[in-house]
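Posted in: Protein Modeling Q&A

I'm a second-year student putting together a small comparison for a lab meeting, and my supervisor asked me to include a predicted structure for Deferrochelatase. I've never done this before, so apologies if this is the wrong subforum. The sequence is pasted below exactly as I got it from our records. If anyone can share the structure token output, I'd also love a short note on what stands out.
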Amino acid sequence: MPDQSLPQTRTPGTPVAGPVSGARGVSRRALLGTAGATGLALGAAGGAAGYAAAPAQAAPLSSVGSGRVMFHGKHQPGITEGLQACGHLVAFDLTAGAGRREAAALLRRWSVTAGRLMAGEAAPHDDTGVARDAGPSSLTLTFGFGRGFFARTGLEKQRPGALDPLPDFSSDHLDRARSDGDLWVQIGANDALVAFHALRAIQKDAGSAARVRWQMNGFNRTPGATAHPMTARNLMGQLDGTRNPKPADTDFEKRIFVPASGEPTWMANGSYAVVRRIRMLLDDWEKLSLTAQQQVIGRRKADGAPLSGGDETTPMDLEKTDADGEYVVPLTAHARITRPDKNGGAAMLRRPFSYHDGIGPDGTPDAGLLFVCWQADPLRGFVPVQRKLDRGDALSKYIRHEASGLFAVPGGAAEGEYVGQRLLEG
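Accepted answer (user: helix_wrangler)
Welcome! Here is the predicted structure, written out as tokens:
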């Protein structure tokens, strides 16, 4: 898990396109009448004309609250942005009788809602007020289609081959009720109330067209909690994401996004998301000594540096041996096995959340990783890496894959369009 790092295209929590005051329409803060001060202006004729109310002025947002990600663009939001502090993953199934027309109407509603909420505005109707006072807080909403969506909408001929079911893996203990789904929505933000507000709005927008199949909640470290931006840690205490592909890489687009000339054409500039709920067996993991934990991962726990030496970004020396002739980075170390150059160049952009769903009667925590990875083709990204992990990863003893999903995430919507429009109206 910890060996492919998130691209830090910006410091999480900083504005992408300016503060919310530049957003289209009325901001959520102003619309809901919060955080502003209403002034009174004296009339010109010595007060004879009475008083006029000045426009409400919202107090400046903090750096976290003012962060804004654009909804419209070449790619959907929530893929290349930095890790967000909290998130929700939710899958829906279309209801009986709902088909292509109902699905198109739903995606249109969701796209309008996403655009407004990501701009820091209120939901288009029946806003709950949950996010009152808050700015956009780097909110992102991302939409995808599962394999079953195409049969339900009569679009089976448009279903990509890349959505073929993932193979079975020995570490799988999958709960089918918490796997797959016709539609998938990823919500992320740097404020928990903003994220929940979006989740509630999306659920309400589903109306009678779709019902929730499963929903999962996750979190990451809050932006600004460390002295400087750094790779996140997972619940095992390991730096998680050191070797992630970065947008500056020359082959980044090729590895992560379907090309504009790709097939099917409606997936141009889109990506495929593999979603896995991976439970960490923390009681067993925490019994290991620090040295044993580092041997399992292949990196130092303190700073993420490879056991072969250097710092976090130092290339791993896979041939280095100790005084006894043993490899310094064990053959079964997770970081060794997941290296792209050991998997035919297979790479994926990992953008996970940690989760904690309570403590069992025996004191065992139900906690781990909501693993989300992005790639142009899962058969060349996730699958070969997971197959190799399945055959000899030392970490497998301490994790369990409990849910799984694979979703086609189309390219971003242009102004005036909705996500998936090229599929549903093509």
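A couple of things worth pointing out for your meeting: The chain has one domain: 63-424. Confidence is low (pLDDT under 50) at residues 4-26, 31-57.
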